[in-house]
């Protein structure tokens, strides 16, 4: 049963209630796409020039791909600026969990007309899987100086603020009460806090990071200018801390952080209360 105001449960065309991604994926293609299209923010449609209630632009070119295999509990939505290998403007992956939750596995939003920074490949041009298999330091420097966070290849579109309410209502319509995710970086975790997430695992680590970036802390003392990603003063901003952590300033790699958001409940968590706001 949906709990958000003015929201209602999801039903298929035959009037049967839907309670999971797996259930939606059993439907015919057109019906699946109609339901999953609810997750596309209107501004994304405007940016791509999508026709009303369509996944195509005015020229009839299909720009949105929805992969929702029958029998599986996941959906992947990919929207490109052009059908012929254009920039991936919006990438979303959701899945059911064994505990009746919605897992937000990936959400990537890019401005298709912004410059590209090749931080997603190593210096030989090979995919580095979010820098876990090598880094591209020259491109990372360009990205950092342009105001991007680690792993960002383009500036964003500020779309998450309109996307997340759609995800929350969609999850609620399936009768699910919790959204879970694993932030891939420190800045991701701070961003999710803003949207009301709490920690299943990692809150102690986040509080420790905040403490150790203050004067007298071990991470504060390591902002010694030894690399461009460890400059004094970087402790004051989310991006500064995130780049330093990306550069390996911690004693262990960033990992094992899990977060959750109860539908309709803002947890009010803020593990970096005295941060300096950044113009983005």
Termini gap:
39 Å
Structural class computed from helices and strand pairing: alpha+beta
Strand content: 5-15%
Low-confidence stretches: none
Number of helices: 9
Mean pLDDT: 95
Overall form: globular
- Indicate the CATH architecture of the domain at 21-205 and 257-262: 3-Layer(aba) Sandwich
- Rg, rounded, reads 20 Å
SSE arrangement, N to C? HHHEEEEHHEHEHHHE
Q: CATH-wise, what's the superfamily of the domain at 21-205 and 257-262?
A: Gcn5-related N-acetyltransferase (GNAT)
Q: CATH topology of the domain at 21-205 and 257-262, what is it called? A: Aminopeptidase
Give the class-level CATH name of the domain at 21-205 and 257-262: Alpha Beta
* Main sheet properties: 7 strands, mixed
The overall strand count is 7
Structure description:
By secondary structure, the chain is an alpha+beta fold. It has a domain at 21-205 and 257-262: Gcn5-related N-acetyltransferase (GNAT) (Aminopeptidase), CATH 3.40.630. Helices cover 27% and strands 15% of the residues. The chain has helices at residues 21-25, 29-36, 42-48, 137-145, 160-173, 186-194, 203-212, 218-221, 238-246; strands spanning 64-67, 74-80, 88-96, 102-109, 178-181, 198-201, 258-262. The chain has a seven-stranded mixed beta sheet. Strand 1 and strand 2 form a beta hairpin. The longest helix has 14 residues, at 160-173. It is globular and about 65 Å long. The protein starts with 20 loop residues before the first helix and ends in an 18-residue tail after the last strand. The model has no long low-confidence stretch (mean pLDDT 95).
């Amino acid at each position: 049963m949906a709990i958000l105001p003015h929201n209602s449960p999801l039903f298929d065309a035959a009037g049967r209630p839907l309670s999971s991604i797996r259930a939606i994926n059993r439907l015919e293609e057109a019906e699946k796409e109609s339901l999953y299209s609810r997750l596309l923010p209107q501004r994304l449609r405007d940016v791509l020039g999508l026709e009303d209630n369509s996944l195509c632009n005015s020229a009839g070119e299909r720009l949105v791909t929805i992969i929702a295999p029958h029998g599986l509990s996941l959906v992947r939505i990919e929207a490109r600026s052009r059908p012929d290998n254009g920039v991936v403007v919006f990438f979303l992956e959701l899945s059911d969990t064994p505990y009746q939750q919605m897992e937000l596995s990936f959400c990537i939003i890019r401005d298709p007309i912004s410059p590209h920074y090749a931080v997603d490949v190593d210096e030989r041009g090979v995919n580095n899987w979010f820098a876990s298999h090598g880094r591209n330091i020259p491109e990372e420097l360009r990205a950092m100086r342009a105001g991007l966070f680690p792993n960002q290849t383009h500036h964003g579109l500020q779309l998450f603020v309109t996307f997340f309410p759609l995800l929350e209502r969609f999850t609620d319509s399936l009768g699910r009460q919790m959204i879970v995710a694993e932030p891939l970086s420190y800045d991701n975790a701070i961003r999710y806090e803003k949207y009301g997430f709490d920690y299943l695992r990692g809150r102690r680590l986040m509080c420790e990071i905040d403490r150790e970036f203050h004067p007298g802390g071990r991470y504060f003392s390591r902002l010694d200018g030894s690399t461009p990603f460890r400059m004094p003063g970087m402790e004051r901003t989310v991006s500064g801390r995130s780049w330093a952590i990306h550069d390996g300033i911690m004693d262990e790699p960033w990992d094992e952080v899990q977060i959750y958001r109860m539908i309709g409940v803002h947890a009010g968590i803020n593990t970096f209360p005295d941060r300096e706001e950044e113009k983005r």
